[in-house]
Amino acid sequence: MEIIEGLLYIAGDAGLSEEQLIMHVPITKSQLDKVVETYERPNFTIQRHGDKYFLKTTRHMEKYIQRILDDRPGQKLSQASLEVLSIIAYNQPVSRGDIETMRGVASDGPVSTLLGKGLVAKKSMHDERAAHFVTTDYFLQLFGLESLEELPSQKDIMEQEEMDLFFESIEEE
């Protein structure tokens, strides 16, 4: 267990796939599943996002980590980058032309930012010249998702917007 924990710690945000862990640690898939399922440390947990495993801190650590992060300068995504990221997340694989058609403006800057931050990657499509973009496992990890199926649906988003508008109207009164 300590070897897997150490490897996941070293892998950091990149995580390690099941195949990588089995290749470097003398363990079978079923043993790995059991180790991950029973892993219990006071401040750490092992989570799976996509096809990769990550060593993460527990919810108990959130308030302490948040204090440290609040002291750092912000590295937020721009509104344009968030728009492009959501277009890619919900429509992947999607070409740059498709992104620009949906946004109505050129999107080279936001796409470059997202590629640079490792949130999206290029994917070659058979019989198509244009590169397409897909979200990465790091995207899943950053947003706390195990798979893209956990993205909020259009209905969930509309309900949240209605709730936000309701509470904004209450605050204004």
TrEMBL record:
Cytoplasm keyword on record: yes
Domain of life: Bacteria
Keyword line: Cell cycle, Cell division, Chromosome partition, Cytoplasm
Alphabetical list of Gene3D superfamilies matching this protein: Winged helix-like DNA-binding domain superfamily/Winged helix DNA-binding domain (1.10.10.10)
Pfam families xref list: SMC_ScpB
Keyword Ligase (UniProt): no
NCBIfam families to which the protein is assigned, alphabetical: SMC-Scp complex subunit ScpB
Protein name: SMC-Scp complex subunit ScpB
Organism: Salinicoccus bachuensis
